[in-house]
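Researcher: Next sequence.
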Amino acid sequence: FVSLNFLMIDVRMAMISQELLNGKSVLVTGATGSFGKAFLKRVLDEFKPARLIIFSRDELKQYEMQQYIPNGGNVRYFIGDIRDRDRLARAFNGVDIIIHAAAMKHVEASEYNPFEAVKTNIIGAENIISEAINHRVQRVMVLSTDKAASPVNLYGATKLCAEKLFVAANHYVD
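Model: Next structure:
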């Protein structure tokens, strides 16, 4: 890890320490996706967060997840979309750590729906950055993709842009 508030992480999460998540309020965007499911399982098995907020726009996936990760205790489910800054503002109250995994991830869908990819992957990133700064979130960790390195499609280009936004956001925090 680099000692910045906004960090890029990979799926392996090899360097996440106990101090980073234990006793913290952790919010995961896109938490019902493939990474989110694996990450939440690992967090619940290996760490002791004070609160774990599962943030996603898919109510069916949240319902299905609640069948094996019940709501209550330190786990909270929050329906919302990263494209909705007001909803993010509500969700980020009292949050210490954000793991940002929400994205429009399919290359073909992004090519066919370019404005939707921009709204989700770029504007959504801007919304997370702005509200994380407004709520003084301690740390934001962001997932990206190899497709952001020398992108040849819109998906990769939007993820590259999002990466640059998150890195630049370090200039706006104390």
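Model: The two ends are 18 Å apart (CA to CA). Helices lie at 18-21, 34-46, 59-66, 85-91, 107-112, 114-134, 154-169.
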